[in-house]
């Protein structure tokens, strides 16, 4: 089943997450129509290779053309129209930058895998639960309801102002008519009755003025209360959800709903402002003793302007945090002289502001770094699929300034990965006589000068965004707080689900917890220090916990990704636990686990039984690292692995993947060409040669009557073993093979 088919079968809450990252940059229609072809291409490799990206873009357009030809025969006018429009957009937008669409599609596919992985996990962690509790959902509904009610109240007040204007015009006409009469006519009974009627009308005018001012005051008060309480909380919650999403958590939604609320409130405030201007106009035409307008209007107008200032300032947000396109799963880690992207949005979407707001990007105030590239751009409604008022900077590069002595400061391999910086943005809004200066900043970023610093820099980003919701605490690592281990483990699982498509289950997380805190009864209340996570070496090891875990992520990503996604790599299990799991299993049952002593290593252990049937023994192969896995796929190693017993008869001891899955059933679809599929000698440069196949081989000596101890086995190719047999005696070989090997 294709990945897209699996996505379509998800529950609605997960489908809503999928919907959030498909827009005009990569339309969902194309994802749906070309699902299998898209999934068969290596978009991630193309995101770093311009020539490959250009070929894939051209092939994508060809695929769209072919689909256009098919639907043209079906005379599906709407689909034909949409495909033509999409093709034109794709060609126009990415012809000059094909790697950008490769990055976008790669990110979309990765997010799909992350969501599929999240959907398959039965239990939500504490962080995810806190982000999706019912109180938050109820508040969202209340905010939307109150904003709608405020909008209706402002519109109803418009009608009251119009009625007041009509009443005053009638009063003004009748009053001026009387004033134009001769003095003798003014003493008539009819005129006296008219004067009494005018007095009653004036009383009504006074009452209506007070009523309109009161209604305007209530609308302003309701907006003030909503902004001060629920809307502010809603915005802070969205920013917190964004923080968590940046470190691998659930995709954060709700910004469109916030935009709708901010826009409606801004429209209501401008509507109230126009009502107050109309009252001022009515005041210039007529006033009287005790007139409420000159007393109340200035205060109300001042309050409206104050609320507009605050509303605009809060509406200027970083929609997508700074991120290098080459490392989409590592946002807020920026490498000097490498481009990054960042997107901002004004949540007040008014047509009058389109292309009228120019945003300037800067970095810090310490003058250590500066931003190169286009750092001033206008916000517009044309680049976003939903028509939001936004701007995306795509060509910014951080550059470290030379020190006054002419050296390069800290640039180089020793740049501090706990030093936080901030990308700041400023602009000015001029609208309806108001001038409002706006400022906002990204979440703290870490600068690196070499990709080797990326893992530790990313650890800093994880720890910061897990531990605090303060968006600008640049001195955080002067005294970093401890983090709840239960939440940290949840975030670590997110690293796997977002980066390699499958999160960690409770057993795997328990193993990680034991490595971090030792043998504890429960880790629910355990607080882990930053030093223990990323600074101190693991007991008896030359590396930290985070370096060990990051090496495993890299191993999975580059060498065993399909096996990991299928769930066939147990991975995080101790040597003690694996023996407990295997001891009662059928001989030949094996499991795959990550090495605890070798960085980025994976090994397999199988259970065997001695001939007397009294003892079982366990064999663990020396871990395979990325160097050896680059030469031979891991699935092929499992298929072809041989053991030479004492009688020199090679056999494959791996029969069943734990608990009882036949090996070929588990890994068969990942095998490359079968060993039996040997091609015939060609007539070209290989003429006369017989193709060779690398087969991993180990040797087990079993000439002792005592129960054997677990042994670590070195793989040996047939050619190497043949050479050894040719030049060394069997005794020497057996002595070498049986030598003690490093502990895993």
Number of helical segments with 4 or more residues: 25
CATH architecture of the largest domain: Up-down Bundle
| Name of the CATH class of the largest domain | Mainly Alpha
Termini distance? 38 Å
- SS-based structural class? alpha+beta
Query: Could you give a short account of the major beta sheet?
Result: 6 strands, mixed
**Strand arrangement, largest sheet?**
20-19-14-15-16-22
**How many individual β-strands?**
22
Poorly predicted runs of 5 or more residues: 404-414, 676-685, 703-714, 717-721, 731-744
Summed up, the domain count is 4
- Seen as an oligomer or otherwise, the chain set is single chain
Overall shape: elongated
Percent helix, as a range, is 40-55%
GO molecular function, one term: DNA-binding transcription factor activity, RNA polymerase II-specific
Keywords: Acetylation, Activator, ADP-ribosylation, Coiled coil, Cytoplasm, DNA-binding, Isopeptide bond, Methylation, Nucleus, Phosphoprotein, SH2 domain, Transcription, Transcription regulation, Ubl conjugation
Subcellular location: Cytoplasm; Nucleus
Organism: Tricholaema leucomelas
Report on this structure.
InterPro entries: p53-like_TF_DNA-bd_sf, SH2, SH2_dom_sf, STAT, STAT4_CC, STAT4_DBD, STAT4_SH2, STAT_linker. Pfam families: SH2, STAT_alpha, STAT_bind, STAT_int, STAT_linker. This protein has four domains: 3-120, Transcription Factor, Stat-4 (Orthogonal Bundle); 134-313, STAT transcription factor, all-alpha domain (Glutathione S-transferase Yfyf (Class Pi), Chain A, domain 2, Up-down Bundle); 324-401 and 415-452, Immunoglobulin-like (Sandwich); 506-670, SHC Adaptor Protein (2-Layer Sandwich), CATH 3.30.505. 51% of the residues lie in helices and 14% in strands. It contains 25 helices and 22 strands. Helix 6 (50-74) packs antiparallel against helix 7 (77-94), helix 10 (134-179) packs antiparallel against helix 12 (189-246) and helix 13 runs antiparallel to helix 14 (293-315). It is elongated and about 140 Å long. The two termini are 38 Å apart. Residues 404-414, 676-685, 703-714, 717-721 and 731-744 have low confidence and may be disordered.
